[in-house]
Amino acid sequence: MVEIKLKKGKEKAVLQRHPWVFSGAVDKIKGKADNGDVVKVLDNSGDFLAYGYFNDQSRVAVRLIEWNEETQIDEDWYEQKINQAVAARADLLKAEDTNALRLIFSEADFLPGLIVDKYADFLSVQILSTGIEKAKDIIIDKLCKALNPTGIFDRSDATARTHEGITAENGLLWGEAPAEFIAVKENGITYHINIAEGQKSGFYCDQRDNRLLLAAYAKGKSVLDCFSYSGGFSLNAMQNGASEVTSVDSSALAIETLKQNIELNKFVKHKHTAIQSDVNKQLRAFKEEGKKFDIVVLDPPKYAPSRSALDRAARAYKDLNRLGMLLLEPGGLLATFSCSGAVDIETFKQIIAWAALDAGKEVQIIKQFSQPEDHPVRISFPEGEYLKGLLLRVL
Ligand code: SAH
User: Fold this and answer.
1) Would you give per-residue pLDDT tens digits along the chain (395 residues)?
2) How far is CA 168 from CA 126, 160, 327, 381, in A?
3) What pTM was estimated for this model as a whole?
4) Which residues contact 394 (CB under 8 A, 6 or more apart)?
5) Which of 17, 27, 358, 361 lies in the 20 to 30 Å Cα band around 93?
6) Which architecture does CATH list for 75-175?
7) How far does residue 230's CA lie from ligand 1's centre (Å)?
8) DSSP states of 214-267 as a string?
9) Does residue 202 have its Cβ closer than 6 Å to ligand 1?
10) Ligand 1 binding pocket includes 228 (Cβ within 6 Å)
11) Domain boundaries, the chain
12) Is any ligand 1 atom within 6 A of the Cβ of residue 214?
């Protein structure tokens, strides 16, 4: 096996079980590794540190997977990791009112670059590292063994793949192809998912808990759901008796799916407006009309894909939140989210403070949102904590 010796002092993060070795930490490579090969990482004096997937095209030269030298990275290893991840979700898998969940969450489940979501009897897979790409057949086999799915679909069309030098894939990997829309349940609400073309892997199951938490405040209230996608926050608010709901998203497929979901749940009697538009434009238009809401939800896409994009992203978050605050009735609630891993909760709070000053509003934090149990954060990998949000009372 090829050996990667680290520069002096660079073993620290590995010993702390952080799963990334940056290319700048590498001192010498003994042998010739192909991208995606499992390599041995050694400290500068030659002592074993960990095994990981090698890639010389990525900023992360080795994605670590195993810290025990005696352990072999073979079929059994993959089976064990997959079964461990599935076992950790046993309660969710048994839940009667939910059948959309994340089964494997990359580094958090010791399989860096592998994301597997379960949507009813189908699996949606994203492969974002060459190491996982090489083990694809084994992984499919073990997923079938553990879960007996109807079909496995490859949604590896994310831009993250290009950082690893692998091409995008979108197609059936195994079994039956899903219908254009399949129905799933989350907290008792039914959603249509387009596995092949929907955003990300088809659905945002990471907002499952937050949709419920927010809906608890929605009874009798007017709700503006910005970046609504297929209506997660909108439908939960309706379910809980919101007086009217307005959903805004720029994607035609998102709005179409949301309308299907309203029918599927027999919510057609609820007062609802779906607007296909750019949120920034629409918020400005509402402001000019003098329109106000009791609750505003802001769940934008990732504004900061990396640390270098932080300044620009901070300004975009600030502006968005300032506008959201200005559309609230006095004492109204703003549920605001960031799914940028590069923006931590403290930075997010600072951005909100800055937005509040600009809006001329007093703002209280009444709740903090995070990601649900099927998106665990490994304590040695804080970067895995990407979804954060605040429920604010805007005075
Ligand atoms: N809140 C959603 C998930 C939001 S994902 C849920 O609970 O499922 C982000 C959404 O923002 C996507 O649906 C995307 O189409 C939409 N989007 C991205 N940029 C936008 C923009 N400038 N204006 C309106 N919608 C936008």
Assistant:
1) 999 999 999 999 999 999 999 999 999 999 999 999 999 999 999 999 999 999 999 999 999 999 999 999 999 999 999 999 999 999 999 999 999 999 999 999 999 999 999 999 999 999 999 999 999 999 999 999 999 999 999 998 876 677 777 877 789 999 999 999 999 999 999 999 999 988 777 899 999 999 999 999 999 999 999 999 999 999 999 999 999 999 999 999 999 999 999 999 999 999 999 999 999 999 999 999 999 999 999 999 999 888 889 999 999 999 999 999 999 999 999 999 999 999 999 999 999 999 999 999 999 999 999 999 999 999 999 999 999 999 999 99
2) 10, 9, 40, 26
3) 0.95
4) 325, 328, 330, 331, 332, 333, 334, 356, 361, 362, 363
5) 17
6) 2-Layer Sandwich (3.30)
7) 9
8) HHTT-TT-EEEEES-TTTHHHHHHHHTT-SEEEEEES-HHHHHHHHHHHHHTT-
9) no
10) yes
11) 3-66, 75-175, 204-394
12) no
Residue 31 Cα to ligand 1 middle (Å): 46
Residue nearest ligand 1's atom 12 by CA: 229
Regarding the domain with residue range 204-394, which homologous superfamily does it belong to in the CATH classification?
A: Vaccinia Virus protein VP39 (3.40.50.150)
Atom of ligand 1 nearest to the CA of 211: 7
Do 42 and 6 contact (CB within 8 A), yes or no?
Answer: yes
Q: Relative to the CA of 203, which ligand 1 atom is closest?
A: 8
Closest residue to atom 16 of ligand 1, CA basis: 227
CATH number at 3-66: 2.30.130.10
Q: Which amino acid is at 296?
A: V
* Residue whose CA is at the smallest distance from ligand 1 atom 18: 301
- Annotated catalytic residue 205: no
Ligand 1 contacts CB of residue 382 (under 6 A): no
* Residue nearest atom 10 of ligand 1, based on CA coordinates: 227
